Automatic annotation (TrEMBL):
Pfam families: 3HCDH, 3HCDH_N. PANTHER family: 3-HYDROXYACYL-COA DEHYDROGENASE FAMILY PROTEIN (PTHR48075), 3-HYDROXYBUTYRYL-COA DEHYDROGENASE (PTHR48075:SF5). SUPFAM superfamilies: 6-phosphogluconate dehydrogenase C-terminal domain-like, NAD(P)-binding Rossmann-fold domains. The keyword Oxidoreductase applies. Belongs to the 3-hydroxyacyl-CoA dehydrogenase family. It comes from Amycolatopsis melonis. Residues 201-269 form the 3-hydroxyacyl-CoA dehydrogenase C-terminal domain. InterPro entries: 3-OHacyl-CoA_DH_NAD-bd, 3HC_DH_C, 6-PGluconate_DH-like_C_sf, 6PGD_dom2, NAD(P)-bd_dom_sf. Pathway: Lipid metabolism; butanoate metabolism. Signal peptide: none annotated. The lineage of its organism: Bacteria, Bacillati, Actinomycetota, Actinomycetes, Pseudonocardiales. This is 3-hydroxyacyl-CoA dehydrogenase NAD-binding domain-containing protein.
Length: 328
């Protein structure tokens, strides 16, 4: 995986048209991260958001992200000056070569928004949604003219730093559109994975949800505190997960026998643990307990400094991973 791209050319898709201008629709936390990344890759960005003060917040967010992107390596021509803003979504996407949508996670809102995008963009322009869990087929119902160009391109926060993007096709998405989306995200330094079938929550959020279910249950049952569980992951398996995925880590833990050895010897007890995992309901009491636990764990911590420290470690981790040719 290559994450440090220095003096890189502007991104291109695998299709016939060069991508030089990206429209970012919705400029909250995710939209601001995408905007900063696209600018850092030497692209022009036209951003749009109807919220009062959105432009000022976006420009401040991009400026805050810029030092991290400088450390990761800017492409030739990268500049914050290549950002323009309009509250008119139709005008924002009219000349775009690629659209990254980051609106609210509500199907009715997506339908209205994608109906507008369907009308205002050229028919070959990919309409990618950052949706963290909605099905692209459902989103595409708002695109009656060209549903074949709708795809989910779900990043992980912060999107200007974390390489992963999940590319999810809907029932009517053209394979060529998926190929072009994967090529574009790769060109801007992301590590895309291509889902073969759509599923609510995609892949990474479903994996996270499985962990959260048991973590919440352990807190609810009084087995461990919020701080204990965070420490268990951050100082244990989370360190290995940051380098290799669950299957590769399991394989290495099996020694010479690899994954086959692990499945033979630890498979039966693992199945017993699965049967003991608990379903949990996010009751008001449990929610209060979780929030209180995080407050206690992070008491006296400045959230901005905590996020900056996290991102600084991520910078170094990504650089270290990029320098290791033997990692997949």
């Amino acid at each position: 995986m290559t994450v440090r791209i220095t003096s890189a050319p502007a991104a291109r898709t695998a299709g016939p048209a060069r991508i030089t201008t990206v429209a970012v629709v919705g400029t909250g936390v995710i939209g601001a991260g995408w905007t900063a990344l696209f600018l850092a890759r030497g692209l022009d960005v036209v951003a749009t958001d109807p919220a009062p003060g959105a432009e000022d917040r976006l420009r401040a967010g991009v400026a805050a992200h810029w030092p991290a992107l400088v450390r990761l390596g800017l492409a030739e021509g990268a500049s914050q000056d290549r950002l323009s803003f309009t509250a008119d979504a139709g005008a924002a996407v009219a000349a775009a070569d690629f659209v990254q949508e980051n609106g609210p996670e509500r199907e009715d809102v997506k339908h209205r928004l994608f109906g507008l995008l369907d009308e205002a963009t050229r028919p070959e322009v990919i309409l990618a949604s950052s949706s963290s869990g909605l099905l692209p087929s459902d989103i595409a119902r708002g695109c009656p003219k060209h549903p074949e160009r709708v795809v989910v391109g779900h990043p992980f926060n912060p999107p200007h730093v974390i390489p992963l993007v999940e590319v999810v096709p809907g029932r009517e998405t053209s394979p060529e559109v998926v190929d072009r989306a994967v090529a574009f995200y790769t060109a801007v330094g992301k590590r895309p994975i291509r889902l073969r079938h759509e599923v609510p929550g995609h892949v990474a959020n479903r994996l996270q949800a499985a962990l959260w279910q048991e973590a919440y249950s352990l807190v609810e049952r009084g087995i461990a505190t919020v701080a204990d569980i965070d420490a268990a992951i951050a100082n244990g398996p989370g360190l290995r997960w940051a380098v290799l995925g669950p299957f590769a880590n399991q394989h290495l833990s099996g020694g010479e026998g690899g994954l086959a050895h692990v499945l033979r010897h630890l498979g039966p007890p693992t199945e017993a643990w699965w049967r003991d995992l608990r379903r949990v309901h996010l009751t008001p009491h449990l929610a209060e307990t979780l929030v209180a636990g995080v407050d206690a764990e992070l008491a006296g911590t400045d959230p901005a400094k905590l996020a900056a420290a996290r991102d600084a470690v991520l910078d170094r981790l990504l650089a270290a991973k990029a320098a290791q040719p033997d990692l997949p």
